[in-house]
Design goal:
Shape: flat
Oligomer: single chain
Subcellular location: Nucleus
Cofactor: Mg(2+)
Number of strands: 4
Structural class: mainly alpha
Strand order of the largest sheet: 1-2
Pfam families: XPG_I
Protein name: Exonuclease 1
GO biological process, one term: mismatch repair
Number of helices: 6
Number of domains: 2
């Protein structure tokens, strides 16, 4: 279960942080302790209640695995921003996102195999064209429009003449 895995990772990070702290490695310990933090239901509820006091702020609490839906709401200007604890929404081309800064951005050297580009494009298309619900038209549609096949795009250009 995802929550059990997260709980275990937090516990492991606390233990690692305590060991590093005992060794006098304060900076490294702080990194582990930050990874061990969990946002409680009380903090979430308090934050939601605070934002609901503003007349121009709507709060939508989304269920798990709703990344495509959230990206759709932001990209269609039905929501202003998504606040999230991970960066999954980047894959869905979410235009306005407040994530934590991922540690992999600190990597200085990365070797990428040639096949990676093809697989990346296929994965990106899976995210970009995931089906979402449009509450205005009350129907399902792709998150972003499907691209026209090259021959269809060429025909459209020829029709303009």
């Amino acid at each position: 279960d995802t929550n059990d895995d997260r709980r275990q990772r937090r516990a492991d990070n606390v233990k690692a942080g305590e060991l590093l702290l005992a060794e006098g490695k304060l900076d490294e310990a702080m990194v582990k302790f930050k990874r061990a933090t969990s946002i409680t239901t009380d903090v979430v509820e308090s934050t939601i209640q605070h934002f609901r006091t503003f007349t121009n702020v709507d709060v939508i609490v989304s269920p798990y695995e709703s990344d495509a839906q959230l990206a759709f709401l932001v990209n269609e200007h039905l929501a202003d921003v998504v606040i999230t604890e991970d960066s999954d929404l980047i894959a869905f081309a979410c235009e306005k996102l407040l994530p934590r800064i991922p540690t992999y951005l600190n990597m200085s050297k990365l070797s990428v195999p040639k096949e990676f580009v093809e697989e990346f494009i296929r994965a990106e298309n899976t995210f970009l064209h995931q089906v979402v619900f449009d509450p205005r038209q009350r129907c399902q549609r792709p998150l972003t429009p499907y691209p026209l096949p090259r021959h269809a795009a060429k025909r459209d250009e020829d029709d303009d003449d």
